[in-house]
From TrEMBL:
<feature type="binding site">
    <location>
        <begin position="39"/>
        <end position="42"/>
    </location>
    <ligand>
        <name>substrate</name>
    </ligand>
</feature>
<comment type="pathway">
    <text>Carbohydrate metabolism; galactose metabolism.</text>
</comment>
<keyword id="KW-0808">Transferase</keyword>
<feature type="domain" description="GHMP kinase C-terminal">
    <location>
        <begin position="288"/>
        <end position="367"/>
    </location>
</feature>
<dbReference type="GO" id="GO:0006012">
    <property type="term" value="P:galactose metabolic process"/>
</dbReference>
<keyword id="KW-0460">Magnesium</keyword>
<feature type="binding site">
    <location>
        <position position="166"/>
    </location>
    <ligand>
        <name>Mg(2+)</name>
    </ligand>
</feature>
<dbReference type="InterPro" id="IPR036554">
    <property type="entry name" value="GHMP_kinase_C_sf"/>
</dbReference>
<feature type="active site" description="Proton acceptor">
    <location>
        <position position="178"/>
    </location>
</feature>
<dbReference type="GO" id="GO:0005524">
    <property type="term" value="F:ATP binding"/>
</dbReference>
<dbReference type="Pfam" id="PF10509">
    <property type="entry name" value="GalKase_gal_bdg"/>
</dbReference>
<feature type="binding site">
    <location>
        <position position="134"/>
    </location>
    <ligand>
        <name>Mg(2+)</name>
    </ligand>
</feature>
<dbReference type="InterPro" id="IPR006204">
    <property type="entry name" value="GHMP_kinase_N_dom"/>
</dbReference>
<dbReference type="InterPro" id="IPR020568">
    <property type="entry name" value="Ribosomal_Su5_D2-typ_SF"/>
</dbReference>
<feature type="domain" description="GHMP kinase N-terminal">
    <location>
        <begin position="99"/>
        <end position="183"/>
    </location>
</feature>
<keyword id="KW-0963">Cytoplasm</keyword>
<dbReference type="InterPro" id="IPR006203">
    <property type="entry name" value="GHMP_knse_ATP-bd_CS"/>
</dbReference>
Length: 389
C-alpha cells in the first residue's frame, strides 16, 4: 500500500502544533482520484471506474470542548472559525472552508452529534486540475470527525454524505463518483461502482505486473465556464430521460439506442444521450477485459471514450485534445480526458518504459501549438481515505 507522502502529514502536524500550540489527536488522509473510464455517467445512475492517486489531503485534528470548528489550511491566508449557526445554513461559510462546513452541516442534518474540533490541513492534490481535491478535503475531514466523535457512519455510507455537503452546502451539482473513489478505493485496484445501487467491486488493476503505467497529464488549460457547462450537461441528460420515460439514462440499453435517439427532438440532446449510453457500455467492457487480465486491450475503449466526450458530449478543449492525440501518436495504447471536462487532466495507458517519451511528445505538441507547458506524473492505484498511524 502506498502511504501518503510523509511530508504532507508532517506539514499538517506542524501546522496544527504551530497554530494551536497543542498535539493533534490524530491525522486522517484522503487521496485525489482519476477516473479510468465512465465520464458523466454517475449522475445518470450509471457505471464508473475510478482509482485513487498516491496524492493526499491530510487533516490533523483534535476535539475542542465547545461546539465550534476552527480550520487552518497551509494554502489559506487566515484560519476560519464557525459554529452551529453558520454550519446549519448553507452559504454562511464560503470559499475553500465551505467544503469543511458542508461536511459538518451534512453530518448534523443526518442527526449525527458532531464534535467541535480544531483542524489543520495540508495537501499535495493539485487544486483545479480535476483530480478531486474537493472530494479529498471532504473525505479527510469526514474521516476525522467520524473518528473523533465515535460516530456510527461506515465507509460505504460516507460518500453520499460528502456528496450532500458538496451539492447542498457548497452548491455544486456533482454526482457520487469522486466521493466514492476517494473513500472506497483499494490500492492496486480500480473501483467499479454502480452509481444507482452504490455496490462496488474492486477490480485488480496491476499495472506493474503488465509492464504498464498510467501517465497523467495536467493540461493546465484554463477552466472555461466549467461549472455552468457541467450543470447544463446534467440538465440535458435529465430532460432526455424524462422525454424517453425512463428514471435515468442508465435505463436506455445500447440495443435500444437507435430507437431512443429517434424519439428525441434535437441533435444536441441525441449526442448527449449517445455519449452516456455508449460510455456506460464502455465501462462494462473495460471491466470485463480487466477481469480477464487483458490490461493493454482496454486502450481502444479509453480512446473511444475520449472521442465520445469530444464529439458527442462536447466537454473537451484544444489543450486536452492535443495531449490525447500526441500521446496516441507517441505509442500510448489509449488516452482520454478524465473528470468533468473543460480542462483538467488526460490519462494515457503506456508501456512503463515509454512513459517519459510519451510525456515528452505531449510537451512538444503543446509547444508547437503555443500552449503553456503541461505537467505530468505516472501513477499507480492507491487506497482510499484512512487514519494515519
Ligand atoms: C466531476 C463530478 F464531480 C463527478 O460527479 C462526475 O460527474 C465527473 O465530473 C464526470 O464524470 O468530477
Amino acid at each position: 500500500m502506498i502511504e501518503p507522502a510523509g511530508d504532507v502529514a508532517a506539514r499538517a502536524t506542524a501546522g496544527f502544533r504551530q497554530r494551536y500550540a497543542a498535539e493533534p489527536a490524530g491525522r486522517w488522509a484522503a487521496p485525489g482520484r482519476v477516473n479510468l473510464i465512465g465520464e458523466h455517467t454517475d449522475y445518470n445512475d450509471g457505471f464508473v471506474l475510478p482509482f485513487a492517486l498516491p496524492l493526499h489531503t491530510v487533516v490533523a485534528a483534535a476535539p475542542q470542548d465547545d461546539e465550534r470548528w476552527t480550520i487552518w489550511s497551509e494554502l489559506a491566508d487566515a484560519p476560519v472559525e464557525f459554529g452551529p449557526t453558520e454550519a446549519d445554513k448553507p452559504g454562511q461559510v464560503t470559499g475553500w472552508a465551505a467544503y469543511v462546513a458542508g461536511v459538518v452541516w451534512a453530518l448534523r442534518a443526518a442527526g449525527h452529534p458532531v464534535p467541535g474540533a480544531r483542524l489543520a490541513i495540508a495537501s499535495d492534490v493539485p487544486l483545479g486540475s480535476g483530480l478531486s481535491s474537493s472530494a479529498a478535503l471532504e473525505a479527510a475531514v469526514l474521516a476525522a470527525l467520524v473518528d473523533l466523535g465515535g460516530l456510527d457512519l461506515p465507509a460505504e455510507r460516507q460518500p453520499r454524505l460528502a456528496q450532500r455537503a458538496e451539492n447542498d452546502y457548497v452548491g455544486a451539482p456533482t454526482g457520487i463518483m469522486d466521493q466514492s473513489a476517494v473513500i472506497r478505493c483499494r490500492a492496486g485496484h480500480a473501483l467499479f461502482l454502480d452509481c444507482r445501487s452504490e455496490e462496488v467491486e474492486h477490480i485488480p488493476f496491476d499495472l506493474d505486473a503488465a509492464g504498464l503505467a498510467v501517465l497523467v497529464v495536467d493540461s493546465r488549460a484554463p477552466h472555461r465556464h466549467a461549472d455552468g457547462e457541467y450543470a447544463s450537461r446534467r440538465t440535458s441528460c435529465e430532460r432526455a430521460a424524462g422525454l424517453l420515460g425512463v428514471p435515468a439514462l442508465r435505463d436506455v440499453s445500447p440495443d435500444d439506442l437507435d430507437d431512443a435517439l429517434a424519439r428525441l427532438d434535437d441533435d444536441e440532446t441525441r449526442r448527449r444521450v449517445r455519449h452516456v449510453v455508449t460510455e456506460d457500455q464502455r465501462v462494462l467492457d473495460t471491466v470485463a477485459l480487466l477481469r480477464a487480465g487483458r490490461v493493454r486491450d482496454i486502450g481502444p475503449l479509453l480512446t473511444a471514450s475520449h472521442a465520445s466526450m469530444r464529439d458527442d458530449f462536447e466537454i473537451t478543449v484544444p489543450e486536452i485534445d492535443t495531449a490525447v492525440d500526441a500521446a496516441l501518436a507517441a505509442g500510448a495504447y489509449g488516452a482520454r480526458m478524465t473528470g468533468g471536462g473543460f480542462g483538467g487532466c488526460v490519462l494515457a495507458l503506456v508501456d512503463a518504459e515509454r512513459a517519459d517519451t510519451v510525456a515528452a511528445a505531449v510537451t512538444a505538441a503543446y509547444a508547437e501549438r503555443g500552449f503553456a507547458a503541461p505537467g505530468h506524473v505516472t501513477v499507480l492505484p492507491a487506497g482510499g481515505a484512512h487514519r494515519l498511524p
